[in-house]
């Protein structure tokens, strides 16, 4: 990591993984002007470290407390002192915020000028612990405890603070009363300017979000709209409203808000890449009316007017670039564009915004030449009519595919809310091996509940997980049989995590369509999973008990007698706990169901290292026996 003024380089070592995003590490700093490493006097096992956006200040988290250094060689200032393992976390998220809300290993944010550090404080003292065994190499195994709020149980409490590096004073940024009166979440923190911070808060049910801006008045952070009416005043047609809020000089003035959609159509904008003074850049799946494609677009801003959208990537290597993304420089003067298509080697370009395409940084020619000597499968995309919806699938076909023959079919499923499996991202993996070497057709289908096809499809699963997304996989398999080249007696399904849950629910449906299936690290009961994810889609068990009860794998255990089932789980899975697989196993044994199981000692949700190769080898053997 290079400091903003390019005077220092920070090197990381002794990386030790914790959860999905979090880790500890040691750091050393190299002075570019002196050409030597410096003594920066910070501890080892740092949980997070970040340069300031300007100059070379440092903020880091150690033992759940925050420290700031004005320069790499100066003494550090201790910002917090109440950090405690599994109880109080400052500047880093606890388990559930890391996994489900922030998707990062940090919860501190420098202001643009490097004066302020905003940070979140998490209190997990009321959260119940999950416990699992770590076998290790010792004579006795150890027990790992993690504060893990499950559906309907106590959540962590969160507060937001801002530390002033000039005065060493800390002020709390208060949650608005509209959500602060009950349980709530801190969802995003963004610096709007050097002395204005924008914060999004949510209620626990996550069906109400409030965006508040706070200004620094010289001694505290106050809501920009502190003296405004409780609600904005709308025009009669509801399309715009008037509001009172502070301007940049900290005086209350009348503001006019108008809802104006800059894009429209039966497609979706998936991300905003960059906003400059004269343009906004974004990604959408508009082109070719294909939800699985992605292209980069530009809309020019001219005061209050906006130009028509311009696609920057639609015609750029269109034969091999159907999934595009871009990474912009700080000022937005240039960007790095990457593109790919399924099974076609990806390319990265260096593109200047003002000048168009520039230097090709990587064309992956060596990889492309290597793959030309391998019999690769082909991929086709299409839609299936299910109810009122045309829903997308992708199918990986063997190299010498002959539609007059019959092939075994494996459905590769995830099917979680707002997920997408039918897309054009470059992938080479187990599915590629099965299609190219074992002559297995591998298909994925995005049924109801999947994303990027409109809210009606995506929200179909609200308060009813384990219903339509399960039914649609069975219906899709029947449609695939009707295509004429699928052997109806050799159909399997497999998935990981949510995909393992859907696999298990499909096999337990007793449809007679599937001969076998493999579930890796599956959810089995939503009351066993974390609060933020589960309640987002199912609310709390107290509010939706019937659907919680009817969405368990265990409830379908007796139907597994007619299928071959492989259950796989890591014993140290901090995300989907081994408890979930253990309960499936218990229910199957109670019903006298014969099934296969494989556990991986001390492995987490991702089954990394040697376990990863082992699990795919094991599933390959299981699948061959199923299709024999």
Automatic annotation (TrEMBL):
<dbReference type="Pfam" id="PF00930">
    <property type="entry name" value="DPPIV_N"/>
</dbReference>
<keyword id="KW-0325">Glycoprotein</keyword>
<keyword id="KW-0378">Hydrolase</keyword>
<dbReference type="Pfam" id="PF00326">
    <property type="entry name" value="Peptidase_S9"/>
</dbReference>
<protein>
    <submittedName>
        <fullName>Dipeptidyl-peptidase 4</fullName>
    </submittedName>
</protein>
<dbReference type="GO" id="GO:0031258">
    <property type="term" value="C:lamellipodium membrane"/>
</dbReference>
<dbReference type="InterPro" id="IPR002471">
    <property type="entry name" value="Pept_S9_AS"/>
</dbReference>
<dbReference type="GO" id="GO:0008239">
    <property type="term" value="F:dipeptidyl-peptidase activity"/>
</dbReference>
<dbReference type="InterPro" id="IPR029058">
    <property type="entry name" value="AB_hydrolase_fold"/>
</dbReference>
<dbReference type="InterPro" id="IPR050278">
    <property type="entry name" value="Serine_Prot_S9B/DPPIV"/>
</dbReference>
<dbReference type="InterPro" id="IPR002469">
    <property type="entry name" value="Peptidase_S9B_N"/>
</dbReference>
<keyword id="KW-0645">Protease</keyword>
<dbReference type="InterPro" id="IPR001375">
    <property type="entry name" value="Peptidase_S9_cat"/>
</dbReference>
<feature type="domain" description="Peptidase S9 prolyl oligopeptidase catalytic">
    <location>
        <begin position="428"/>
        <end position="627"/>
    </location>
</feature>
<dbReference type="GO" id="GO:0006508">
    <property type="term" value="P:proteolysis"/>
</dbReference>
<dbReference type="GO" id="GO:0004252">
    <property type="term" value="F:serine-type endopeptidase activity"/>
</dbReference>
<feature type="domain" description="Dipeptidylpeptidase IV N-terminal">
    <location>
        <begin position="3"/>
        <end position="341"/>
    </location>
</feature>
